């Protein structure tokens, strides 16, 4: 789909790079594939539902038969679970981290699969590049760390934010105001924007570079030596492709890590 949109109006004889007239076309898919009653299922919705199916299937088939000598697939799944549980939940949150591990594992796998759509052939669209999804995940994180703070500290959780005892008395009103907006308003927004911005940038670069390379190279009979531009674009695109795989995994890790950090600061505000 992105290949068609980016190359449809491209003229390799005169253009330097191929791009749709409106780059929003690379991210917005409003046409319904099918409908469930009054609910239209667009490509984006279908892919989001696909994430849930993939994550559920990976966990189900990876853990349903725990062999004494685990196979490769079981080993990979168990390694991911241990990484999130021990390396993020318990390591960051502490003694109460284990009970947050299932939620953190769900977030990690959901974001990871959603990001991996970017480099998946015939999909090439990370659903996390639509702001609604990162924002929804960030709001869920916000609800969990606020509830965690209230359960542990009661309403004193909010008092500790707006009147921090760890700073001098004269600075408490100012620092409290900054902390209020930072913790209760900016945290979910910055958490969402960080994931959204990185995936938008990567998706845009990959699409434009690889599509331009393909269009220019395939038009060599018409544009001659100018097709060399396509070789340069395609080479850069492949380099970005490999880099994006690292970014995809890193952004899933960062989103999960920050979610754990926010819970930890709610449970132990003095740390």
Structural topology:
Layout: H1 2-7, E1 32-36, E2 39-42, H2 43-63, H3 72-93, H4 101-116, H5 132-153, H6 156-162, H7 172-218, H8 220-223, H9 228-267
Antiparallel strand pairs: 1-2
Large-scale geometry: globular
Q: Please indicate the percent range of residues in DSSP E strands (runs of 2 or more).
A: under 5%
Radius of gyration: 23 Å
Count of domains = 1
- Taken in chain order, the helices and strands follow as HEEHHHHHHHH
What is the distance, rounded to the nearest whole angstrom, between the alpha carbons of the first and last residues? 49 Å
Describe this entry's structure for a reader.
Helix 2 crosses helix 4 (101-116), helix 3 (72-93) crosses helix 4 (101-116) and helix 7 (172-218) runs antiparallel to helix 9. The protein has helices at residues 2-7, 43-63, 72-93, 101-116, 132-153, 156-162, 172-218, 220-223, 228-267, and strands spanning 32-36, 39-42. It has one domain. It has a two-stranded antiparallel ribbon with strand order 1-2. By secondary structure, the chain is mainly alpha-helical. The chain contains 9 helices and 2 strands, in the order H-E-E-H-H-H-H-H-H-H-H.
Q: Which tags fit this structure?
A:
globular, mainly alpha, two-stranded antiparallel sheet, 271 residues
């Amino acid at each position: 789909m992105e290949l068609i949109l980016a190359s449809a109006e491209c003229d390799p004889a005169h253009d330097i790079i191929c791009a749709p007239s409106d780059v929003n076309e690379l991210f917005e898919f409003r046409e319904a594939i099918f409908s469930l009653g009054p609910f239209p299922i667009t490509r984006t919705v279908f892919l989001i539902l696909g994430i849930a199916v993939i994550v559920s299937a990976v966990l189900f088939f990876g853990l349903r038969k725990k062999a004494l000598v685990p196979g490769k697939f079981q080993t990979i799944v168990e390694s991911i679970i241990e990484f999130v549980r021990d390396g993020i939940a318990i390591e960051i949150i502490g003694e109460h981290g284990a009970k947050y591990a299932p939620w953190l594992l769900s977030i990690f796998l959901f974001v990871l699969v959603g990001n991996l759509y970017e480099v998946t052939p015939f999909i090439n669209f990370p659903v996390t590049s639509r702001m609604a999804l990162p924002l929804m995940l960030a709001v869920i994180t916000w609800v969990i760390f606020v509830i965690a703070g209230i359960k542990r500290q009661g309403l004193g959780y909010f008092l500790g934010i707006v009147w921090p005892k760890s700073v001098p008395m004269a600075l408490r009103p100012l620092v409290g105001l900054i902390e209020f907006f930072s913790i209760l308003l900016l945290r979910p927004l910055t958490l969402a924007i960080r994931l959204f911005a990185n995936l938008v940038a990567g998706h845009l670069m990959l699409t434009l570079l690889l599509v331009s390379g393909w269009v220019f190279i395939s038009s060599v009979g018409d544009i001659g030596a100018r097709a060399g531009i396509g070789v340069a674009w395609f080479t850069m695109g492949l380099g970005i492709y490999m880099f994006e795989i690292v970014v995809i995994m890193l952004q899933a890790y960062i989103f999960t890590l920050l979610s754990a950090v926010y819970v930890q600061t709610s449970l132990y505000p003095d740390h």
